[in-house]
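User
New here, help please:
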Amino acid sequence: MREGVKVLACWKYDKSIARAIWRVKYDKNPQIMTHLARHMPPHILSLLFGLCRTQPNVVCTPIPLHAKHEKDRGFNQALLIARAIELLVGIPTKENILIKTKETKQQARSGARQNRIKNIHGAFQASDAANHLKGALLLVDDVVTTGSTMRDAIRAVRQNNKTVQIIAVSLAREHE
């Protein structure tokens, strides 16, 4: 990522991962996401364990959904991943770091890169809790494609906290 943020992705975003994530989100099958997250590749788990050893204050926060979308879906898929990381590695999940204040179209349905950037721009706001972060923040989402969502979330955190180390974590990434 251009912001100097490292992106840890478990898998390449291919047809099988895309199909699984689609089933999670649109068939409302959160068990698939929990299963995927609990089976992260060993090299990702090793990096996360290493981070715990070198950073005394590491927390995990999911990319939030807008309240309306979360209510419609019944869950936040990024929160399921964050909780799996907490279970597997021991990094606590804090849900109160970011708020999605702008209702947006789903990024997957926004089309081209420029449309995704415009769609998500200004969608997130960091809470006061972001001011008090020290050490590292794992910013968790299910998929990183264009990076627009992560960039906007990072922008929001950086407005409140310039010193916390941010690492993006996703199950899948389209562009390496």
Q: What stands out?
A: The chain has one domain: 13-164. The chain has a mean pLDDT of 87. Residues 22 and 28 are 9 Å apart (CA to CA). Residues 13-164 form one domain.
